[in-house]
Design brief:
Layout: H1 13-16, E1 37-38, E2 43-44, H2 51-56, H3 62-82
């Protein structure tokens, strides 16, 4: 995918391939609908995930989703402090 272009909208399983069953333990997607990959950081402007994390989300286990959310929180914290 080219930098600065939209990514997987709202993590739509129909667009992302095979999906694991969603359980009540699965955290919700952090997608905000602002799906643009920033060229310098290679992170989504809206949710602070990498393209790899975005595409892996639908099939990821609850534990992996929690790990991604931890990374997102760290990135967001750094981003807020640096502005």
């Amino acid at each position: 995918m080219d930098s600065g272009q939209a990514c997987c909208p709202a993590d739509d399983p129909a667009l992302c391939g095979e999906v694991s069953p969603v359980t009540s333990a699965d955290p919700p997607s952090p997608c905000t609908g602002v799906c643009v990959i920033e060229p310098a950081q290679q992170l989504c402007r809206g949710c602070y995930r990498t393209i790899e994390e975005i595409t892996a989300w639908p099939a990821a286990s609850a534990a992996r989703k929690q790990a991604i959310l931890g990374e997102v929180a760290s990135r967001h914290s750094v981003s807020v402090r640096s502005t």
